[in-house]
Write a structure and sequence with these properties.
This protein is of the alpha/beta class. The chain has 2 domains: 42 residues; 237 residues, sialyltransferase cstii, chain A. The chain is 29% helix and 17% strand. The chain is built from 6 helices and 13 strands. The strands form 3 sheets. An 8-stranded parallel beta sheet has the order 5-4-3-2-1-8-12-13. Strands 9-10-11 form a 3-stranded antiparallel beta sheet.
């Protein structure tokens, strides 16, 4: 027969041991959720063969990366004729510049431009698998995109990291520009010059709602692009400024640590994460 003291000790020990086992079981369940939801999404048993073989093909070169802000209307983009240019989303509509590379990851934009995006010729496009409806003869690298919904399983900020292996997966960060920076870094570019990255979405408007960290704006109230023919009429657009700025800072630090640089040459930009320089000074 055990003493009262020993019984109390055993009871306390069993309680904490049982609690520890429950914690371990909860952790194992969490890990399983991450594996079930992240691994198929990020790797998808597919690694883009072109992108995998293209690491460093533009080593030490310069690339102009075009967003779609209104400031593009104030730039002489014909000056880019001898440079490598990457554009996103509506940049394909610019007549004064020919894009070498194109990227889009939007769940919304492509729906209003599907036929045009299928026809647009460039050296290569970068699209996530869920945009397979705009497949065309244009060479395309299909990306495994780690999105905000996936970060919820890990309970970490969005974006969480900068991908050094975009042929495996690309980390989303509120803006397609962040995805492009991961690709361009991998391709070896030393200097990235941002154009049309005005970072002005009018999110302080009284008409804006905020949900899960992102502002929800009616497309008819959003005056953030060089063309009005951007989204479908009255479409609800999600603008996650905090995620954008977090991603831009991650990209800035990665480039800086490797002796590379990102410069913002968008006139009147509200994005001060990167050094700002006058566009025409590059020529």
């Amino acid at each position: 027969m055990i003493s009262v003291k020993e019984w109390i000790i055993r009871t306390i020990r069993n309680f904490f041991w049982g609690h520890l086992l429950n914690q371990i079981a909860a952790l194992e369940n969490r890990i399983k959720k991450i594996e079930d939801h992240l691994v198929p999404s990020t790797y998808n048993l597919f690694q883009d063969p072109w992108l995998k073989s293209a690491g460093g093909i533009h080593k030490n070169e310069r690339c102009f990366l075009l967003g779609c802000g209104p400031s593009l209307k104030n730039l002489n983009l014909s000056l880019l004729k001898n440079d490598i240019v990457m554009g996103v989303n509506g940049a394909y509509q610019l007549d004064s510049v020919k894009l070498d590379y194109f990227a889009s990851v939007s769940h919304y934009f492509w729906k209003h431009h599907k036929n045009e995006l299928k026809k647009y010729p460039c050296r290569r496009r970068f699209l996530p698998h869920y945009l397979n409806e705009i497949e065309s003869d244009t060479p395309t690298s299909w990306l495994n995109l780690l999105e905000k919904k996936h970060y919820g399983y890990m309970n970490v900020p969005h974006p969480w990291f900068f991908s050094f292996e975009p042929f495996k997966y690309v980390s989303s960060g509120g803006s397609v520009i962040y995805c492009c920076l991961q690709i361009l870094y991998y391709l070896g570019f030393r200097t990235i010059v941002l154009l049309g990255v005005d970072h002005d979405y009018g999110v302080n408007s009284i008409n804006c709602l905020k949900k899960n960290g992102a502002y929800i704006i009616n497309s008819t109230d959003l005056n953030a692009h060089f063309t009005s023919n951007y989204y479908r009429s009255k479409e609800q657009v999600h603008i996650d400024v905090e995620a954008m700025e977090r991603g831009y800072k991650l990209a800035r630090d990665v480039f800086h640590a490797d002796g590379r640089t990102i410069i913002n040459a968008s006139p009147g930009t509200k994005l001060d994460v990167f050094d700002i320089k006058d566009f025409e000074s590059f020529f």
